[in-house]
Amino acid sequence: MRVLVAVLPFAGHVAPMQALVRELTARGHDVRVYTGSAYRSRFEDAGASVLVWRMAPDFDEHALERTFPQLRGKKGPRQLLANVEHLFIRSAAGQAQDLLAEWRSEPWDMLLSETTSVGAALAAERTTAPWVSVAITPLSLPSTALPPSGLGIRPGRGPVGRFRDRALRVVSRALTRRLRTALDETRATAGLGPSPVPFEAAGFSPTLILATGSRSLDYRRPDPPPHLHYVGTLGVFAGTPHPQWWAEVEHATAPVVHVTQGTQNLNPDDLLRPALEALADEPVLVVASSGVAGHDRLPFPVPENVRVAGLLPHAELLPRTSVMITNGGWGGTLAALSSGVPLILAGGDLDKPEVAARVGWSGAGIDLRTGTPDARQISAAFRRIRSDPSFRAAAKAVGRELGEGGGVPRAVDLIEQVETPDPGESPSAASGA
What residue stretches are annotated with the Erythromycin biosynthesis protein CIII-like C-terminal domain (predicted)? Predict the structure, then answer.
């Protein structure tokens, strides 16, 4: 097949899609990737050709405010709404313009996109190739029986809980009216009419949805679509070098605790500082990540039992890890659970509260219910998770289920089962493309 893969240029989005691209090219498919210039080499290394954002505003994920000043000063739910409106929705017309120009130049047999790539969804409506979407964040597909996704709220129980969830869905529609307006305006710019689906479902394919994670990390849905498949974890970045002190991890006799704030919202005072303070007197080796390659120091003194690196080789670190303290990045969370590592989560922004709530619901970790915990809260959670074996047992159970999802090979098997145009024929653009 000729496959066009659309990926927003964020580290957490790129890693799972890169794994799919690598498998597709290994199976002989011709893959083009549409993403930001910062990740050109990542996908070229995976065997794909790369089309970078042109009409869409290419951006630096570590300095979003330079390109999207509307995000400046936003935190928590306000940050989530601003990101969805300006970064995901209003940039989508430019993305669609780029993709449709590529389609006219050289059509593809299949479009594969991650679910925050709204521009790919718009392009899919104006081309004739089938479209597959990959949920690289917690599955946010709307449900008639669950609270709105993204708020970090678990489903209610009993009649009162169901009434609360129904009320939350009504309130959510009112609070997100601006996002629906933004989507319809963006669709008009792209030459399309009003959205035929709720904006929460705009990035989900009607043909095939591949959801990272597992059923135990998604609330029980009474209405899952038949084309939804949970595929476990799709991998993390490979090739991260070992820090100079790596031998201390390999030969550690004390438990290893990994502390990370992921790769977004990297103010170390939010989680790194209080976590390192909480663990300073514990008989553990603390391995902390700053979240930026090459940034191997923190802007404050660290305790003697702490080692710091910008990024870390998770595939080798996590099997040696006793507990992970994290802001709840989905990729890192899935990687930890795949290794049976229980979690302490401080999810404060974007999809992080949702991740923390789902892990807490599964029993595989503790949701601190804040993105800025103090040392006392972290210390109490750490001692609880170390003394209660149920957390590790639940983490191992979730890890087994993630493994049963099949990962990259099963995801690509499902992609290959989608009916596509005859490879010998050149698909023609739909009317208006």
Answer: 301-401
**pLDDT by residue (tens digit) across 289-341?**
988 777 888 889 999 999 999 889 888 999 999 999 999 989 899 999 999 99
**CA–CA separation, 384 and 352 (whole Å):** 22
| First-to-last C-alpha distance (Å) of the chain | 21
How many domains, in total, are found in the chain? Answer: 2
In a domain, 165, yes or no: yes
Are residues 247 and 276 in contact, defined by beta-carbon separation less than 8 angstroms?
no
Q: In terms of residue numbers, what domain contains 158?
A: 2-232+406-416
User: Could you tell me where the DSSP H helices lie in 146-302?
Assistant: 158-175, 177-189, 246-250, 272-279
What span, in angstroms and rounded, lies between the C-alpha atoms of 429 and 433?
6
CATH code of the domain covering residue 332: 3.40.50.2000
Distances (CA, A) of 347 to 23, 84, 106, 398: 32, 18, 42, 19
- Residue 49 CB burial class (10 angstroms; 0-12, 13-18, ≥19): exposed
